[in-house]
Structure to design on (282 residues):
């Protein structure tokens, strides 16, 4: 874990140059993720549902289910247990990074499992605490503009709501379909690709059938990541962050909301109005 943390510290940073999450939260995430290895119920876990939603792991989860289904209910369930530790280290490693990031951001508690489905509640998302609790002030304004930027991005990505309808920004409501947009999740996933590597569609199927193949393929995917990290210009990185936009002179930009309504998107100004212009940079 310490070695992985060092690797993460070198390539996963916030805009200010600090680590994307603390070592404490990284360890906490590891405990959550590896506890999932002992889950033998037919009901999906929060972790597995998050993987389905964000497609963090680059392996087919349906194949896992097929391979362990025949012995799922054994007394010792040995095949299930062994399969998880020979063929799923990639899954657990990548999910540890996701969970650590979610804990750091304050989004982990915003997700719950209800009737076998993942439910997101923005009121439990710590990034929008002042906004959802209507605590007016500077933090409220910042959180609102981040909310607006994310809402517009969800619209651009044609993200769907739980009922299957397309999400549309509504200034009268404070709601989002998910904790992260697609560009944000691709940023998080790129970290896993740099550390653990990634699978080609032609080769990854080998891992599903042989024990030795699983060990060999884990090493091959690892080196694909190292190659991109150290040799390829830019590699497979699509990392980014939500940051405040600047003008050509480097001054921070804000919305002019003299009418008290930031939804009107008045012309940008370079003096502090309290409503920063947020944009995705990466």
């Amino acid at each position: 874990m310490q070695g992985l943390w060092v690797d993460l510290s070198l390539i996963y940073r916030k805009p200010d140059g600090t680590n994307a999450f603390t070592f404490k939260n990284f360890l906490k995430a590891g405990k959550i993720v590896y506890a999932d290895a002992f889950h033998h119920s037919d009901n999906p876990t929060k972790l597995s549902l998050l993987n389905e939603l964000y497609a963090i792991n680059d392996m087919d989860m349906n194949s896992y289910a097929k391979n362990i289904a025949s012995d799922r209910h054994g007394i010792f369930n040995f095949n299930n247990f062994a399969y998880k530790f020979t063929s799923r280290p990639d899954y657990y490693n990548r999910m540890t990074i996701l969970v650590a990031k979610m804990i750091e951001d304050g989004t982990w508690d915003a997700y719950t499992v209800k009737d076998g489905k993942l439910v997101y509640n923005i009121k439990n998302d710590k990034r929008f605490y002042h906004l959802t609790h209507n605590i007016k002030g500077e933090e409220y304004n910042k959180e609102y503009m981040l909310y607006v930027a994310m809402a517009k991005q969800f619209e651009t990505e044609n993200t769907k709501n739980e009922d299957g309808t397309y999400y549309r920004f509504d200034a009268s409501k404070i709601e989002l379909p998910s904790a992260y947009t697609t560009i944000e999740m691709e940023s998080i996933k790129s970290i896993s690709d740099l550390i653990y590597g990634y699978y080609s569609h032609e080769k990854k199927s080998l891992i599903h059938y042989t024990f030795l193949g699983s060990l060999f393929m884990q090493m091959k995917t690892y080196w694909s990541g190292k190659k991109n990290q150290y040799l390829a210009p830019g590699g497979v990185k699509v990392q980014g962050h939500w940051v405040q936009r600047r003008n050509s002179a480097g001054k921070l930009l804000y919305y002019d909301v003299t009418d008290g309504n930031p939804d009107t998107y008045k012309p940008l100004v370079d003096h502090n109005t309290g409503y920063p212009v947020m944009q995705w940079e990466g």
